[in-house]
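seq as requested:
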Amino acid sequence: MAMNRTVAEFILLGLTQDFGKQKAIFGVFLILYFATLVGNFLIVVTIKVSGTLGSPMYFFLFYLSFDDACFSTTTAPRLIVDVLVQKKIISYNECMTQVFAAHFFGCLEIFVLLLMAFDRYVAICKPLRYTTIMSRRVCSVLVVLAWVGSCIHSSAQLFLALRLPFCSSNVIDHYWCDLQPLLKLACMDTYMINLLVVSNSGAICMVSFMILLISYGVILYSLRNHSAEGRRKALSTCTSHFIVVVIFFGPCIFIYTRPPTTFPVDKMVAVFYTIGTPLLNPLIYTLRNAEVKIAMKKLWCRN
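struct tokens:
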């Protein structure tokens, strides 16, 4: 494929130009990133080693935590390191790699959240057929499909990014290479490409969010027939899932479902889903889940 470009590198402006704030950003985001890696690593190891967390919910949680660690790694290290240098230069190839990786792991997060909602739906609404429907083979196939779907999505985003011609400016007013800030720099009419971005990323965000809302609505409706204890357990699990969904999808929908405009607030909104969600997921899923907490205590106290 012929690449349409005249720049070899881009300059990232980062979150702020203020030197005092940059030092604070370095400290805060280094701690947040470290906490994200540790939190998700703990969940991945606990689920892999523990004998009690064998259900499909934890099978999917394993992949969500693995994905969160990778997703934050696509943007956070660059943001942290760039704070220390005066001129934040990123090569063209590195920029395109970041577009692909961030969209791959971001999309995988969405698909895994959908699988987790499907798992909860089957467990609560079809309890007698749960083990048949959600067999290990079915779960594995669903995860493979999620990986393939994410690869198709991110390849499409990369294809669009590679077609953008850059003539004059190479300064990206962001802390990572995303399509919206790149579209702003391109010296061509980006209306059609933005339409494709909205119909790809935007549609995945909106449709998935609607499916998740409907599935949790159906789950809540079906809970009225359950015992008080069953209702409490199911509500606890679904609430934690729902908090994650809102925190992740709110910013995504704000960024990817609008005309080709960029707002100053975009960078802070992007922090929410690229750095905030991967940190909050392990906290929400462990603090609200007794089984994970018990398994962690057993595993780490034994060691």
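The longest strand covers residues 9-12.
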